[in-house]
Amino acid sequence: MSRYRGPRLKIIKRLGALPGLTNKEPRREKSSPRRKRKKNQYLIRLEEKQKLRFHYGLTERQLLKYVRIAGKAKGSTGQVLLQLLEMRLDNILFRLRMASTIPAARQLVNHRHILVNGRIVDIPSYRCKPRDIITAKDEEKSKTLIQNSLNSSPDKEVPNHLTLEPVQYKGLVNQIIDRKRVGLKINELLVVEYYSRQT
């Protein structure tokens, strides 16, 4: 199953706000008396898994791989899973406001506009570590793309585990993110339960 390339607003209407997927807002529909279905346990777990998958732009196989890695690590599987996903390079760029969405961040990385510790990294899933320095390539085009993104979201706050120096187009990873700072309303334990039969 490949990465989702369909209409993003449809996903947001179904699953709720996903800031990493798109920054557009769905239009308000006229209130019609629609009957709400009662959700069973499987559907609740499936929706939580889909939220995680669409927010971070992962394929089913990638998400399953992250769940397996988190299951082998020490600590709460759900918390480790979120930390692994939050420390991806494309997500770090999104959180630093260097890209407006995670797909835009992925494109920046794929097109070789980003340096990590002075070396070009073109793998969006690259796992950042504390004290990594993320900068724009020393080209006008790279800096313009990042500046446009910084200008489009000036009021958006950078999380505590990251530091942004917008004048130098530079970001620093201070530490691994804390669960409370994850900008997505999700119950990660339901995702782990969903995958418990497959791992």
TrEMBL record:
Q: Does the keyword rRNA-binding apply?
A: yes
Stored CDD domains: S4
Annotated ranges, domain RNA-binding S4: 87-150
Q: Tell me, what is one Gene Ontology molecular-function annotation carried by this entry?
A: rRNA binding
Q: Which Gene3D superfamilies does the entry link to?
A: Ribosomal Protein S4 Delta 41, Chain A, domain 1 (1.10.1050.10), RNA-binding S4 domain (3.10.290.10)
Q: Would you say which domain of life the source belongs to? A: Eukaryota
Q: Name one GO cellular component term.
A: small ribosomal subunit
Q: Which GO terms describe its biological process?
A: ribosomal small subunit biogenesis; translation
The UniProt record lists the Small ribosomal subunit protein uS4 N-terminal domain at 3-86
- What does the protein in this record do? One of the primary rRNA binding proteins, it binds directly to 16S rRNA where it nucleates assembly of the body of the 30S subunit.
Q: Which PANTHER family match?
A: 30S 40S RIBOSOMAL PROTEIN, SMALL RIBOSOMAL SUBUNIT PROTEIN US4M
- Give the family this protein belongs to, as stated in its UniProt record: Belongs to the universal ribosomal protein uS4 family.
> What is the protein name for this chain?
Small ribosomal subunit protein uS4c
Q: Which organism is it from?
A: Incarvillea sinensis
Q: Which gene encodes it?
A: rps4
